[in-house]
Amino acid sequence: TSVGNLLSTKFPFCLPWDLKRIIDTLNVPPTPPHFEINFDKEYFVGGGKIDIDFAQFETLAKIVRWAIMIMFSIGLINVTRNLIRS
Fold first, then answer.
1. Per mean pLDDT, which range of 13-17, 50-54, 68-72 is the poorest?
2. Do residues 55 and 32 touch, judged by C-beta distance below 8 A?
3. How far apart are CA 7 and CA 29, in angstroms?
4. Which helix (H) or strand (E) holds 52?
5. Is the C-alpha dihedral spanning 38, 44, 47, 51 positive or negative?
6. Which residues contact 7 (CB under 8 A, 6 or more apart)?
7. Any residues with CB less than 8 A from the CB of 34 and at least 6 apart, and which?
8. Which of 3, 5, 35, 77 is a Cys-bridge partner for 52, taking CB atoms 3.0 to 4.6 Å apart?
């Protein structure tokens, strides 16, 4: 094994690689939730269908996703600094 592979698996040197793996895992194309609920005539007169689509909130969802990723990264850096100090 090379030194790079060894450092990427040993604490605390593995933390940058762990952070990269976490960000890579979260880096998937987002799709807004879409729910379709069908009601039988047995439960409601005439039956029916409710269509819930969250595509209209996609801009807000992008902002929230970035904010969560930035806050998580800052939190991980702070916790790591405190851990290394002690």
1. 13-17
2. yes
3. 31
4. strand 48-53
5. negative
6. 13, 14
7. 51, 52, 53, 54, 55
8. 35
Query: Which position has the token pair 């940058």?
Result: 16
| Spatial distance between the Cα atoms of 69 and 22, rounded to a whole number of angstroms | 10
9 touches 30 (CB < 8 A)? no
Cβ neighbours of residue 13 under 8 Å, at least 6 residues apart? 7
Rounded to an integer, the average pLDDT of 53-68 is 90
Rounded distance between C-alpha atoms, residue 45 and residue 5, angstroms: 65
Where do runs of H (alpha helix) occur along 1-57?
A: 3-7, 15-26
Measured distance CA(40)–CA(82) in Å, rounded? 57
74 is written with which tokens?
């800052």
pTM confidence score: 0.46
Mean pLDDT score across all residues of the chain: 82
